[in-house]
Design goal:
Elements: H1 10-13, E1 23-27, H2 30-40, E2 44-47, H3 51-55, E3 63-69, E4 72-78, E5 93-97, H4 100-112, E6 118-121, E7 133-141, E8 147-156, E9 162-163
Length: 182
């Protein structure tokens, strides 16, 4: 009697993941999260939490659902605390833009609203000189301490770009005072 060979992994079964369904992030305050993700990052609110249904026990979803861009849905779940310690690198949610001008505009907008940013390249190539192209990473946090990143794959290297991993302590701010008062 011959043994039959069963597929043992997704590739052998012809299974593929088609895309991202959603990410979840913990948030303390839906109003601040709405302002941060919608006003600063351009997300669209897809679904509000139904607090009446939660209080009645018909639902346990305390999520504010937003679409950040095509294919990226985020559920911002209410909980009384944010993410881990500032030097905890993961989880890290990274997105990308095509143009250096877009990355600069996001940095300017974030910082003008009281969100500190760190711009780095992790390329250690000795040939990085002013104006040469590098992959730049803009690291920052939402008001709840969730570590976010926007990358530009072709950014002109200059004095504003640090070489090496980001110092995430430079992205810490008091969520209670966000956004910065004008």
């Amino acid at each position: 009697m011959a043994a039959t060979s069963e597929p043992r992994n997704a590739a052998e079964l012809g299974l593929t993941i088609e895309g991202v369904n959603h990410f979840t992030l913990p948030v303390r305050d839906h109003d601040k999260s709405r302002a941060f993700y919608v006003m600063l990052l351009g997300a669209e609110v897809r679904r509000e939490p139904n607090w009446e249904s939660v209080r009645a026990g018909r639902s346990n979803s305390t999520a504010l659902a937003v679409r950040l861009c095509e294919g990226v849905e985020m559920d911002l779940f209410h909980q009384p605390f944010g993410m881990g310690e500032p030097d905890q690198f993961h989880p890290n949610h990274a997105f990308f833009v095509q143009s250096p001008d877009e990355l600069r505009a996001f940095r300017s907008m974030l910082e003008s609203n009281g969100t500190p940013t760190v711009l780095v390249t992790q390329q250690t190539d000795r040939e990085l000189q002013a104006g040469t192209s590098c992959q730049a990473e803009l690291h920052f946090r939402d008001p709840d301490g969730n570590h976010l990143e926007i990358t530009c794959r072709s950014f002109p290297f200059g004095d504003d770009v640090r070489i090496g991993p980001p110092d995430l302590w430079d992205t810490v701010y008091d969520w209670r005072s966000w956004p910065k008062a004008e």
